[in-house]
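Risk register update: the risk of archive-format incompatibility is retired. Evidence:
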Amino acid sequence: MDESIFSTYRQGENRVTASILAVLRSLVLPRIEFVLGALLGEEFTLVSFQNQASKGGSGVPDAEIMAKARILLETKTERNALKKDQLERHLERLETEPDGRVLVLTPDHSEPGVIKEINDDRLVWSSFADLNEAINDLLGREKEVVSEREEFLLRELQKMLDADKLLRPAKEIVVVAARIAWPIYLEYHAYICEANRSFQQVKYLAFYSERQIQATVPAILRVEPEVLFQRGLHDRPLDELIQRVLDEGKQSFTAKSQMVFFLSAPDDVQHTIKLDQPVKNDLQGAFVQGQRYVSLAALRKAKRTSELVEKAE
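Archived output:
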């Protein structure tokens, strides 16, 4: 894209937030409501107008104009940057406003776990990619007559988001060294490693085994960061997994607590990705010794690991 009119020299969340507000402020009301509604995932009205309003009292005024909601906006320009205590403080500001919302904008590719953890209907997460798509939808509506000025500002906002790398595909796959882990996945549909190991937020887990990234890439369904491998201590799915592992003699997992990823099965067509072929390692050494991150788009295209090196983290 061409350079945006919004400065990219003064970095930070405040500049991104200020730019979004400046563009929204320049739109007519229905288009503001369209963009906000797309981000909030609901029919949304900032201001309503009604003739001969009869509700709420005995008198019937000629008309009523009512502002309906307060929105608090929190933006993060880094992935995995949301803090629970900060969001809870924002929600406290809305205690007397049941129609209020805390709208969180981040570059994460899926809803951050802290949003689910807080579990408050007033807290809504959306991505910058969603904002970008909402702008495209607005400008692509046949019956929407958008002024040249509005279109210019909206396109410039898209350029800024792209220039700040807020729209780039996330590296949503972690590739793990899997000489032992690959056969364990095939048997148990799980990945087991040392407890509390640090991972970025990802959707899929790929296995590097036999000098190739295996073509079966399961989705991560659930993660338990610290699990003591003893029977009868956990919920049913986890306890059943532990019993199977122990019954089949995998005693190495009993020495200490482990981290457990529940993964989609190889034949789960809804969740598990099937590459056209395994990605062969053509590098001098191993492609990964611990873990490495790649994008799904890059992994689908690659035939050799050298094609992933510059795109991996």
